[in-house]
Amino acid sequence: MATVFYQKDANPSALKGKTIAVFGYGSQGHAQAQNLRDSGYDVIIGLDPHRKSAKQARADGMTVFAPAEAAKRADWIQILTPDETQGEFYESSIKPHLKKGKVLGFSHGFSIHFKTIVPPKDVDVVMIAPKSPGHLVRRVYAQGGGVPSLLAIYQDASKCAQELALSYAHGIGSTRAGVLQTTFKEETESDLFGEQAVLCGGLTSLMQKGFETLVNAGYAPEVAYFECVHEVKLIVDLIYEGGLSRMRDSISNTAEYGDLTRGEMVVGDDARKAMKKVLKQIQSGAFAKEWIKENKKGGKKFAKLREAAAKHPIEKVGEQLRGMMSWLPAEKKNASEVSQSPRKVMNA
Fold it and tell me: 20 to 30 A Cα–Cα from 311, which one of 109, 122, 180, 294?
């Protein structure tokens, strides 16, 4: 069982008088920075002053410096920029100012675990990884709560790395909910596996193939979308609230019997074998090398895959059906606009 830390385990004063620089003002960046500030910590933002996100940061009352200047001023350097560009960003803006006694912080272990960033031995290297999107990190904190986080220590040069990390976790509100001890290796590999095999790759492939199966069998695309895509949220919400048992207790006996007798037919031994293959590619570093290489080559393959996915009939049908749903925000209904908009990075 993982060790879990709470409010009583944190010493907020451990970061008193220290400057925390948050690099990136996306999903996680804006939330962590504002929560830290509202907890009484000294926070600055490291961004190109001309970026749109820098303008938003200033509008939110944050002080913005160019990345190199922010790194120079900071005692704690929290890198929340995209995984695929972190290595280059670190070399150009962070490394020259990463002096003995500073803390290098992350919210995902990719760059450290796969060694696209190799920090000096005289700095603490830690991870505080909130287990929710940034908007929820901010909203729950503002309501007086917090979201759980993972904590990992890669280097403890100061012999105080864990105390400092828990102080940071306290500042973003996570000790209110619970902070679980892990390692950079465990967080990175399990996170990538979850994204690829279940949460994103596995789930979207399952929905798409279910949609295609019904449509190819002559069922209306609109009906197929409702059954294989739209209702996924209803089921996931039940699982989120109370686990698989809560979901099964809430559906019909017919649905539950079908679940327990047919689910293994669809996601069975072949799927497990594929999952093991995916996990091995993550563990060996093959996926990380592929992803980094793809970005160095300009991301052409990635762009083609995005374009093909956006043109799938499931997107057009979904866009039409979401138009019927008055409760959805207008800006979230149009699939074509979403597919062409600037990309949001989960860990930035």
Answer: 294
